[in-house]
Amino acid sequence: MCADPLHIVTMTRSPGKRACALFLPQKRRNERRGLPGLNLAGHVGDDPCVVEENRALLMRVLGASDVPVVVPNQVHGDDLAVIDDVSAQNRPAEIERVRAVCSEGIDGIVCLAPDIAPLLCFADCVPVIVVSPTGLSRSCTQAGEASSRPSPRKPSCV
Question: What is the pTM (predicted TM-score) of this model?
Answer without folding.
Answer: 0.71
